[in-house]
Amino acid sequence: MIVRLHAPMTGWALPLDQVPDPVFADRMMGDGFAIDPLDNMVRAPCDATVIAVAPTRHSVTLRLANDAELLIHVGLDTVALAGSGFTAQVRDGEQVTLGQPLLLVDLDPVAAQAKSLITPVTVTSDGYAVTLLTIDASVTTGDPIAEIAPVASNAATADLGEDTAHCTIRVPLANGIHARPAARIVAALKPFTAAVTIIAHNRPANARSIVALLSAGIRHDDEIAIGARGPDARAAIATVARLIEEGMGEEAHAPAPATAPAAAISGDGLIHAVRAAPGLAIGPIFQFRPGDVSVSEQGAGIPAETAALDAARTTLLTAAGGTAGAGADIAAAHRALIEDPELLSAAQALIVRGKSAAFAWRSAIRGHAEAIRATGDRLLIERIADLKDIERQVIALLTGTEATLPTPPKGAILIADELLPSHFSPLAEAGIAGICTAFGGPTAHASILAASAGLPMLVAAGPAILELGDGQRVVLDADRATLDPAPDTATIDTATARLTERTTRVAAEAAAALDLCVMADGTRIEIVANLANAAEAGRAVALGAEGCGLLRTEFLFLDRDSAPDEEEQRMAYAAVAAGLGGRPLIVRTLDIGGDKPVAYLPFPREDNPALGARGIRFSLARPDLLAQQFRAILAGVPAAQCRIMLPMVIDAGELAAARVILDEARAALGIDTPVPLGVMVETPAAAMLAASLAREADFLSIGSNDLTQYALAADRGNPAVAAKVDALHPAVLHLIARAAEGARAHGRWLGVCGGIASDPLAAPILIGLGVTELSATPAAIPALKAVVRQLTLGDCEALAERALAAATAADVRSLLQRTA
């Protein structure tokens, strides 16, 4: 069926080649035409269905009668206007007729702020040919301008078989499917051969492509349909559905409201932004404007350019595989982008047309970035920085030339339009004092790195900051989400005093953190660290960790195609032990299931995975894996350091079964000396039965995160009830007290390794309840030790008694604030 298009606006009809944007000019968004408009109303070019009006109202996508999808994109770079100047005249799903108003555009202010008013009109779906009827000529709204016709495809497709599966689910992830969840979906599908498609907003997306998933604009609480075809369709679809429904370990909070770029200086003289990482900084502005590496458009032949691109991608994949710490999730998302089938297909298509690998990769990246930008979703637009980062790294390898990065002076406040993750480390090493970006968001990967490094950072401050002069002294107050571009003497003096007090306090805490932690009355409290890999061990020791109270061994098993073998595990555990320099190391056995599924260890579908086969239940169901892990731990960790901890134990029967397997592993390695074996108290059952557990276990450790959600019947991955998940609730404190009582009855020590252990405010209550070990995040250790050293056991016990008598978590927190 051929559909005739009529001019949606009055103006000058242009071929796409004349659009001053390579994304459209190179037809990365599909074939079509453009109009340089003279009127302010965008009208339907034919009868159609509205698929989506962008949230920023700068574009509309239509489905035509022959199923072609047509994008009308008003102006260039207009998404940055955040909807200003655009008024939608239709809604998603509405049927429209030829000439019906779609968008009203306030041309003058849009023209003043946009790169151009030229409006591309492109067919974004494959399998259609565009025939232009009028071009390089003046057109009036309603004039015939083009015809869209389907074309037969000769592309061969693999025979995936006839098995199909479908399901519909609602997305619980607070921030929708952004880069990290998309990467997890792509990784989870690697063991399967089925073709899997996710349909959102009436548009299909290849579930094996992180770019396609980002472009789909899937948000919190969206209903999506998942379809699969192939011999393992049912297993593939069950894996994806379970992964999404269980939240993928994403932080539980309601989705943040979209933040439009801030205006210029507000009435209070400040530039208001969004806090990405807390802190305060004073310093001169440094405008960070890195340039692009020039690339040749024409290639040296298809075989040479294809081989060069493959080699560059392989090099980056290898480098990303060794990333740990705060950058591990970011590296996983980047790996998925490097392997993305749609990015690679777009680049290869350009190489076949004679383009160089560098030109093809840059064009593919920028085309997909524009597709993501066209969704208008700010959380997704934050991920464009990851695409740019991959573009930069691949081109550097292809050309042998790195883009020159300007070097800021030490103590500078760095200003940029946005910051790429790979730019962060050299800038932090240069000694910058703070960062403020015009765009981006608090969940962008550069923001995560800044928070991990303790570097104050503001985002979404608006383009006005890019006009501030180099060397201009400013005050960046990330705690209050403001940038003062012209602070007076009093403001600088106040900020300097705050900085001095903070710097003095932090330095004193850091210096004292290397000493053992002893309370004011001489009571010894061990302060140790939660770790996920060897890279974190050295940093934890430098921050004062007296050992490791929880090594999460899942880091070896997640985001890969197959389980690590015994030797790989042994080497990993040995590296952590070496990083601790002989200090105690508590290794928790594999805790997967629930919010941590592993694709190559399939679980049966569970209606409530948090109450299913996770932790020790999974390990006892797979004694071969548990025995292998026990042997790797025993062989890798020196006996003087080694302790082992079992997750999600509910009674002594599970502990006894695991000890039998541990004893067999010791015998196989010829180890006669018993190894301390403890359990995590993560369920009300374990807390209530702590005395019987302590009779058999060598130590107990409270997993406060799970204990809290089970005690309060509030899923910590559900934004609707996340506010109720408070480990200081009196019900949780009573369970901790019961566990401490059981541990004391048999002379066992009790630790806490959940999130509450990192909170200095909670330390007095935990110690008063009977806890003698706190396992915290490394960065929290200096401040935690400083607080504990000021306490006495008697005061802590009295405070704990008052907390146990409280009625609500709010009452407990109020009590702590009054006594702080």
UniProtKB/TrEMBL annotation:
It is found in: Cytoplasm. Pfam families: PEP-utilisers_N, PEP-utilizers, PEP-utilizers_C, PTS-HPr, PTS_EIIA_1. Keywords: Cytoplasm, Kinase, Magnesium, Metal-binding, Phosphotransferase system, Pyruvate, Sugar transport, Transferase, Transport. Its cofactor is Mg(2+). One of its GO terms (molecular function) is phosphoenolpyruvate-protein phosphotransferase activity. Its EC number is 2.7.3.9. Residues 21-125 form the PTS EIIA type-1 domain. One of its GO terms (biological process) is phosphoenolpyruvate-dependent sugar phosphotransferase system. CDD domains: PTS-HPr_like (cd00367). Residues 164-251 form the HPr domain. NCBIfam families: PTBA, PTS_HPr_family, PTS_I_fam. This is phosphoenolpyruvate--protein phosphotransferase. It comes from Sphingomonas alpina.
